[in-house]
Amino acid sequence: MHLSTDEIILWQHGFFKLNLTIVTTWGLMLLLAVGAKLVTRNLTHEVQTTRWQSLLEVIVITIRKQIEEVGLRQPEKYLGFIGTLFLFIAIANIFTIFPGYEPPTGSLSTTTALALLVFVAVPFYAIRERGLRGYLKTFAEPTLVMLPFNVISELSHTLALAVRLFGNMMSGSMILAILLIVTPFIFPMVMSLLGLLTGMVQAYIFSVLATVFIAAAAGTSETPIDDKP
Amino acid sequence: MDSMTLIAAASIITAGLAIGLGVLGPGMGQGRAVASALTALAQQPDASSTITRTLFVGLAMIESLAIYCFVVSMILIFANPFWNHVIGQAAAH
User: Fold this and answer.
1) Which residues does A contribute to its contact with B (CB < 8 Å)?
2) CB contact, 8 Å: B79 with chain A?
3) Do B60 and A166 touch (CB under 8 A)?
4) Which residues of B touch A208 (CB under 8 A)?
5) Angle at which helices A75-94 and A187-218 pack, to 10 degrees?
6) In chain B, N or C: fewer CB atoms in 10 Å?
7) Which residues of A fall within a CB distance of 8 Å from B49?
8) Contact flag B64-A171 (C-beta cutoff 8 Å)
9) Is domain B23-77 annotated with CATH 1.10.10.10?
């Protein structure tokens, strides 16, 4: 029994190790990129669209609406980043229906990388919205005494994001492996069904939390309200 | 009792205690959160989408506490650094 897919090394040459996590991640990236490219190759404005275009439109519009509901007024700015996070984690988790597939999100290195992306994206968007001065000022709110706590909370957010996704995905596959020893036939199937649900919920939670952190740092209060009714 | 037995016993007992005690608090917290959300849903069914989203995010936040305990106990059982150190020393002799 292994704790993560990092321990399965497929190819090694000196310092470079190619483990299962990297291979699966690149495979998923290739799949997402090639799939998106194939679908968006010939987009149409007409009423009659292809099935795949309708699917992508539904996904993009839903993500856009969710971002807007959390509190970011111009979701187009954040759609690329948050949508990519959600799609990658969701696809990585949902592929567990294929036997023999190990989700790369069940490895702490992948989830840490994703959480670090959020860690970098929060100040990036906040500085773009408020300027460097405005962003640094948010650390001294409500008073200057809270400065160390705000810094700690920023760091612990990142840690929590990484460990939450890793723990959920790892526990799913771990419980499945233990159940296969104890009750081999029907019950593991039910648990893997539950694992699929957990995977989708975790993908949703990860992207919503990223949105919430960005919204809290970027702040929508100072930007003027759009002329939308 | 030599140090190997001591480390093994301490790791196993601590792993069980960590998950057992660590799940208590988040369990009660999640119960309270779901109960309040149900009350709110019964009072205002129109706001169901907002309540459900906030509930899920809150539950995930609470659940991550239990997940930390789970990760710690898994590390203690399957990837214990002290145990690996002792095994390494025993292999060197």
Assistant:
1) 1, 3, 69-70, 160, 163-164, 166-168, 170-171, 174, 201-202, 204-205, 208-209, 212
2) yes
3) no
4) 53, 56-57
5) 160
6) C
7) 69
8) no
9) no
Distance CA A114, CA A107 (A): 11
List of chain B residues whose C-beta atoms are within 8 Å of the C-beta of residue A212 = 57
Q: Is residue A227 part of a domain?
A: no
Domain ranges of chain B: 23-77
pLDDT tens series, chain A, 229 aa: 566 777 777 777 777 778 888 888 999 999 999 998 988 887 777 777 788 888 888 999 999 998 888 878 888 888 999 999 999 999 999 998 887 788 888 888 899 999 999 999 999 998 988 888 888 888 887 788 888 888 888 888 888 889 889 888 888 878 787 888 888 778 888 888 888 888 888 899 899 889 988 888 887 544 444 444 4
Rounded (to 5) percent helix, strand, coil in chain B = 95, 0, 5
